[in-house]
Amino acid sequence: LGHGVHARSAPRHGAAAEPGRIDMAHMPFRTAAMPNPLPAPPRSYPVWNDALSNPYGRIYGTDIANDWLYVLDPTENRWWRERIPAYDGNLIKGYYSLGDPTPDGNTTFAGATDHSAAYAHTPAMDANGVVWLATMSSGSYRPGYCPPDVNTPRGSITAYYPEENKFLVIPTCFGTHHITVDEDGTIWVNGDSRYIGWFDPSKLDPADPTTWERAQDWEHIVVDSDGDGEPDTPMIGFTYSVAINPVDGSVWYGVLTPNPGRILRFDRETRKFEVYEPPVGSGHFGTRGLWVDSKGQVWVPMAGSGHLGRFDRSKCRQTWGTGQQCPEGWTFWEIPGPRFQGTERNTNFFYYVWVDRENATGLGHDTVLLTGTNTDAIIAFNQQTEEFIFLRVPYRLGFYTRFVDARIDDPDAGWKGRGIWTAYNTTTSLHTETRRPSFVHIQIRPDPLAH
Questions:
Q1: Structure confidence by residue, pLDDT tens digits, 290-311
Q2: What are the C-alpha distances in Å from 323 to residues 138, 231, 243, 313, 334?
């Protein structure tokens, strides 16, 4: 995410950035921030943190293996970092990787990842400029306000207040992993196998810990299996992603397990769930990091089978059930690329999908972007032509990405005023020649001679 309020201020711990490279071991990464004074293109959905938010503002990313929040000021070509604290000084390691193996393991990168207590996975920002982080830093601490049957150990949400340069770690009664902000400023997270949770900053007084309880809420994942309108069947499975439907405000989750995976819909008005699975026997599985387009269609990467999936709830003849009730809502596309020898399985790994609703890429509104994590590329899918376009970051830079977002800095500046932001993610960067990952800004010329 980006933050425009401090775009011209002197960064703390400032250091001149090496062009194109930023030193961080893991950056699930987003761009969004303070509302843009420039008018957005006409649209039917209410969302403040779109691609026109935060023109020329700061970019934030997390180093999951070392507890750093990295900040990039693209206008000054400077970056700095702030250490993300763990709750009450907890130092239980949360990330075992190439540089920080399990006690019986070994590594050729000793010390590369030696501080992972906060386990800050993903940042997002609200309309007040507060950066929210999905963290897992509370260790074995269990808040007293959590009911006995509602708690995933180590769940927490961390707020970063840039103006004060302060962090606030808030233990939660639910697991946390990825994070997003809706049009009302509510923080939604995934990361639990039995519950979904959310956090309302408007109910929080940062100076008063007694407000932590009233600011958070959760719901047990139970669906209506027989159509009588009453939830009766718990659905257990790790929620891996979360996104807001801009058409009706419903909240959608990608659930990775059990196979073939599933997607969940949560109606925040009725607090009821619906669940949908890829049709059994279709060969499509591995529902992971989903997103929703401006028409309310849910786009899902099939990380296991190597397909792009689309789910259109409006086509469903039946919405209640335990997952297999709406095969007509699904459409799948096989993604180009090499296959594992002797199989039809794609060698690529499609971790997340993001939809370009505002045409920040220049490839068209609602272009679907997949992270081609094993192929040095962002893969764009044109919904009209059903064509895939590979946006490849070439060797020697290397590119192992797991998320993408966009920003339009100046809608009147053509291709130079817009683009997508992403990053080289995880400790795979230790295998590159620089051993450092990077922020990556991709801008697409309308033709090779455009300037």
A1: 999 999 999 999 999 999 999 9
A2: 34, 14, 19, 12, 22
Q: Is residue 327 helix, strand or coil?
A: helix
Q: Are 215 and 201 in contact (CB under 8 A)?
A: yes
CA distance 8 to 416: 20
Q: Which helix (H) or strand (E) holds 212?
A: helix 211-215
Residue from 344, 355, 358 nearest 383 by CA: 355
pTM: 0.87
Amino acid at 340: F
Average pLDDT of 3-22? 30
CA nearest neighbour of 252 among 220, 288, 285: 288
Amino acid at 250: S
How far apart (Å, rounded) are the C-alpha atoms in residues 126 and 124? 7
Which residues does 120 contact at the CB level (< 8 Å), separation at least 6? 62, 63, 64, 67, 69, 84, 133, 134, 135, 137, 158
Of 314, 322, 318, nearest to 221 by C-alpha is 322
pLDDT band at 32 (very low <50, low <70, confident <90, very high): very low
End-to-end CA distance of the chain: 27
List, in order, residues 6 or more apart from 387 with CB less than 8 Å away: 381
Residue burial 141-176, b: 16+ Cβ < 10 Å; e: rest:
bebeebeeebbbebbbbbbbebeeeebbbbbbbbbb
